[in-house]
Structures are given as C-alpha cells and as structure tokens.
From TrEMBL:
NCBIfam families: PRK10885.1. This is CCA-adding enzyme. GO terms for molecular function: CCA tRNA nucleotidyltransferase activity; hydrolase activity. InterPro entries: CCA_bact, NT_sf, PolA_pol_head_dom, PolyA_RNA-bd, tRNA_CCA-adding_enzyme. Gene3D superfamilies: Beta Polymerase, domain 2, cca-adding enzyme, domain 2. Residues 3-122 form the Poly A polymerase head domain. Belongs to the tRNA nucleotidyltransferase/poly(A) polymerase family. Bacterial CCA-adding enzyme type 2 subfamily. The keyword Cell membrane does not apply. Catalyzes the addition and repair of the essential 3'-terminal CCA sequence in tRNAs without using a nucleic acid template. Adds these three nucleotides in the order of C, C, and A to the tRNA nucleotide-73, using CTP and ATP as substrates and producing inorganic pyrophosphate. tRNA 3'-terminal CCA addition is required both for tRNA processing and repair. Also involved in tRNA surveillance by mediating tandem CCA addition to generate a CCACCA at the 3' terminus of unstable tRNAs. While stable tRNAs receive only 3'-terminal CCA, unstable tRNAs are marked with CCACCA and rapidly degraded. Its EC number is 2.7.7.72. A single active site specifically recognizes both ATP and CTP and is responsible for their addition. It comes from Oceanisphaera pacifica.
C-alpha cells in the first residue's frame, strides 16, 4: 500500500500559496485494509475514507468510465491493480494531476509542473469532455489564478466550447452550477469566470439572463458592460463589510446583477437556486443603485426621497444590509472614494438616534409612535440637508 498527497495541496504548494486542505490517494489497497487501520468510510459511489486522527480524506485509486449523460453518468472502478497514473489521468487539469510521495518526491506524468511554470490551464486527456462540470471548474480556476497570469490553453478552450455547443451543460443541476459560481465570486477576479464562460459559449447556456452583458449590438451595451467592470471593482474595494465569505459573495452577485431588471434577477435566482439573502440584495441594488448616486448629493437630495430610501430598504432593522447596498452603488460608480455613500451612511447614523422613548414618555401609543418617529426624522433630515 502506497499513499500520495494529490491535487490542490500539491498545486498550491508549488505556487507558493497557503495549503488548507490535504487529500490523499491510496494505491494497492482494499477498503478492508483501511477500515482495519481505523479509517472511517464516507464515500458512497467509491471508497473515500477519513484519517482517524487528521480527518483528511484518503481515496482509493480509481478509474472512471462514462456510462450515461451528465456529470453523474460514470462507473467507478477501484482496486489494488489501479495505478497512480491511472488515477491521475481522470483528473481535470494537469496542474491538479500531480502527486507527492511521503519523502517529497513529485510524480507528474502529465506535465503539470510545466503548465504551472507556463501559467496554463490544460486538460489532462480527452476524457475531460465527459464531465460537463469541468467547464465551470476551469472557468473558476481561471478566475482564481488570473492574478498569477494563468489562462486557458487553446485546445482546452476548444473542448469547453464543444461541450457547451453539444447541450451537455444542461444536465448540470442548479445546485452544482451555483456552488461553482459561489466559489468564483469569492475570487479576487470574479469577472474572469463569466468572461471565460462567455468565450466558450457556456454563458448563454448556463446564465442566459447575463448574456446581454456581452451584447455589443445593444444600444445600451456601454451601461450593461459596466456591470462587469463594477464586479471587478467590487473585488478591489478594501471594505470592512466583507468580513465573511457570505457577505462577499452576496455583494458581488448583487453588483453583477444590478443593471438587470428585477424580473430577470428573480428568474435567474430561482433557476440556479441562489440563496434568498443574495437575491434580496440583488433586487435592492437593481431598484436603488442609480438613485443612491443622486440621493447622496446634498444639492440634489430631497429629505422625503432620502428617508424613503431608508424606509424601503428596511435600513433601520437591517443596517448591515443597507451598508452592503451602499457598497454595491460604490462599485457601480467606480470611484476610489464614494462621497454619496459616505453621506447617506452618516445621515442614517444620525437619524437612527431618534427613537421611540421620548414619544412613549409623551403618552403616544401604537401607530402614533411610528408616525412621530418618521416626522422627527424627516425634520432632522431637512435640517441636515440645509447645513
């Protein structure tokens, strides 16, 4: 029995990137042997085991044979006779098909190290075309490693286009499409994901609602294409709001969609199962981002309209989401400093100090309290805008 470190851990170490997860392949073993050593089996379609101490994944070397449509139509074969080279040959890209022995020696039968040096995303074999999910994975890797200079090899791009044109991508489930999209949106260059999909004809198949962003025949294309620029800029903004992965992805998805109408956004979110909080922010950005540009300017802002913005976006109860909405508008503006957002946030923080307590002390009850708070905030906002 021989154990090798494989996949992303080897790749990222060669790129000088942090290694967080380690996956191993086991050659020359049977499931019973790993179970006797205390490993816990978790794989259903093929034997994958968790190490009894580290909980890292250990998979028996395996081969896959296409036996149906889609990304699930495979027959998996494993056993002591499956070699390491056989296992590595089923992987998507050469940079992910490098193994490392326990002494550090690298085993690279498909030229992964050379492609890392050349910054090339290249498929391992023609078996690449059997799994439509790989189109999304390659686009995601292109986004993740764009800053390192990586690009898709022409022959791999040709296979991706062939897969898109064949209609095979339609077999992907909404959940898998969103999972890859979510990971891509978390990258430093998320717009590259959509650009790669567009150029290999996969965007229209997977995200038809986003296709107009690349329609240069449309008379409003400059405004639409700016959505991609805004998406790129949103990833560059050093904003304290992006404390969590969920917040980061929600903001970037909203920035991408905010030039689309609300019906189109709703259709997209329903079709690929976008989380409800992402959908809500995208709809708010679509409705309000253009207004925010003007409402945050003292010379143009009207107190009633600014207060309507706070009310309609439920800013009083969900200030974090309102801050995210301002970030979306900031990205749309494409400015290093966005004074409109700063002002709207400052005004909001001042108005929220007007609370129900003094009106309750006056004896007001029920809806009368809410109306009193509204009028007090409106009068204070009028004073602020005159200052």
């Amino acid at each position: 029995m021989h154990i090798y470190l494989v996949g992303g851990a080897v790749r990222d170490a060669l790129l000088g990137l942090p290694v967080y997860d380690k996956d191993y392949v086991v050659v020359g073993a049977l499931p019973e042997q790993l179970l006797q050593l205390g490993y816990q089996q978790v794989g259903k379609d093929f034997p994958v085991f968790l190490h009894p101490d580290s909980k890292n994944e250990y998979a028996l070397a395996r081969t896959e044979r296409k036996a149906g449509t889609g990304y699930t139509g495979f027959i998996c074969e494993f056993g002591p006779n499956v070699t390491l080279e056989d296992d590595l040959s089923r992987r998507d890209l050469t940079i992910n098909a490098i193994a490392q022995q326990q002494d550090g020696t690298l085993i690279d039968p498909y030229g992964g190290q050379a492609d890392i040096a050349q910054r090339t995303l290249r498929h391992v074999s023609d078996a690449f075309i059997e799994d439509p999910l790989r189109v999304l994975r390659v686009a995601r890797f292109a986004a993740r490693f764009h800053q390192l200079g990586f690009s898709v090899a022409p022959e791999t791009h040709a296979l991706m286009q062939q897969m898109a044109d064949s209609g095979e991508l339609m077999s992907l489930t909404p959940e898998r499409v969103w999972k890859e999209t979510e990971k891509a949106l978390a990258c430093d260059q998320p717009q590259v994901f959509f650009e790669v999909l567009y150029h290999c004809h996969a965007l229209a198949a997977l995200f038809p609602e986003l296709a107009p962003l690349w329609d240069t025949t449309d008379t409003s294309s400059e405004q639409q294409i700016s959505a991609l620029q805004a998406l790129k800029y949103s990833a560059q903004l050093a904003n304290t709001l992006e404390k969590t992965l969920t917040t980061r992805v929600a903001c970037r998805f909203a920035v991408l969609c905010q030039t689309l109408d609300t019906d189109t956004i709703s259709a997209l979110c329903q079709r690929i199962k976008v989380p409800s909080e992402h959908k809500e922010l995208a709809l708010l950005a679509s409705r309000w981002h253009a207004h925010i540009h003007q409402l945050g300017q003292p010379g143009l802002a009207q107190a009633e309209e600014v207060l309507a913005l706070y009310q309609a976006t439920d800013a009083w109860r969900r200030p974090e989401r309102f801050a995210q909405l301002l970030l979306c508008a900031h990205a749309d503006a494409g400015l290093a400093h966005y004074p409109q957002g700063t002002r709207l946030w400052q005004w909001f923080n001042e108005l929220k100090t007007i609370t129900a307590q003094p009106f309750v002390a006056q004896g007001l009850k029920g809806p009368a309290i809410g109306e009193a708070i509204f009028q007090a905030r409106l009068e204070r906002l009028k004073q602020i805008l005159k200052e």
